[in-house]
Design goal:
With 306 residues, the protein is mostly helical. The chain contains 12 helices and 4 strands, in the order ββαββααααααααααα. It has a two-stranded antiparallel sheet. β3 and β4 form a beta hairpin.
């Protein structure tokens, strides 16, 4: 017998052979010889299909996303939180705040004026008016720069930098940025649906977009999904979210895991692993320039949270 003829088996009629090529569109785990067999078997397969679809969803949701890229100047991993990095609307680079601070400090020490400040990467002078900032962002938008598209969406959402408050325009731009892979845009869309800002409140859509943002490495989205699971009484799922967020530097998730442990919903080993993960993250993103920048911003040399 030709083994290739028995590779696949129809879940409905049991027929085997190379002609059994019609796969369940949802779970992809069973096959049929034709659409008629798929339709007949649908009621028997429904529960198993839904279970498998949920498993596949969670497999993707609870994967550790790729780490942040490195700063193009110091070549050290960028901090996960926006406060530790700056988007440059001249060249489209994301630079750690430490490198920006160090470059600006050298300019000041050289006796130059504020208007002499330049981008640490491309050396283009910094913009000093709202109109110039918007103009530069629009140039980046013409190049399909997802970060610029997302930022201008926020300007419209907030009504800042001289732009009118326009939630519909903001969402339009965020969807465009999301299609280009911008995790921040997915997060913004999710919270627009969660809070009913510019769209009708829809928690199902909110969770959908927040989950997409989390799988693309948005730590705030991941932490907040953990909060939502915690509030729903799903402690195991909350812990999974927070363990992932901690590896990407979310300090609030570390505190949440500690609370889970104190309340008896997590093991001591869970908290120990979380603490080590956070310490590993700090070791990967810390350097003297970044500490100096954070201390200058906060006005203190106490513990810095990236």
């Amino acid at each position: 017998m030709n083994t290739s003829d028995t590779t696949n088996t129809c879940a409905n009629c049991g027929k085997g052979g190379s002609e059994v090529t019609n796969t369940c569109n949802k779970c992809k785990s069973v096959m049929y010889c034709n659409a008629a067999c798929k339709k007949k078997h649908r009621h028997k397969h429904k529960k198993e299909c839904e279970r498998r679809v949920a498993e596949l969803h969670d497999e993707q949701l609870f994967k550790q996303p790729p780490s942040e890229e490195d700063c193009p100047i110091c070549m050290i991993r960028l901090p996960s939180h926006g406060v530790g990095r700056i988007y440059m609307n001249c060249c489209g680079k994301v630079i750690c705040r430490g490198c920006v601070f160090a470059f600006q400090l050298r300019t000041v020490l050289a006796g130059k004026k504020e208007e002499d400040q330049k981008c640490p990467f491309c050396r283009v002078p910094n913009p000093f008016t709202d109109a110039e900032i918007i103009k530069r962002h629009k140039k980046r938008i013409d190049l399909n720069d997802a970060r610029a598209i997302n930022s201008v969406g926020y300007f419209y959402y907030d009504g800042s930098l001289g732009l009118p408050r326009d939630h519909a325009k903001a969402l339009q731009l965020w969807h465009r940025a999301a299609e280009l892979g911008c995790a921040d845009a997915l997060f913004n869309i999710g919270y627009a649906y969660k809070n009913g800002r510019g769209v009708e409140q829809d928690m199902k859509k909110a969770i959908y977009y927040l989950e997409l943002a989390a799988t693309r490495g948005h730590v705030t989205a991941r932490h907040n999904l953990g909060i939502m699971e915690y509030q729903a009484g799903n402690m195991e799922r909350a812990l999974k979210h927070w363990m992932i967020a901690v590896k990407d530097g979310e300090y609030r998730s570390l505190k949440s895991i500690k609370r889970l442990y104190s309340d008896g919903h997590a093991a001591k080993d869970d908290y120990t692993k979380a603490l080590r993960s956070y310490q590993t993250y700090l070791a990967e993103v810390k350097n003297d320039q970044r500490d100096e920048a954070a201390a200058a911003i906060s006005g203190t040399s106490s513990e810095i949270k990236y």
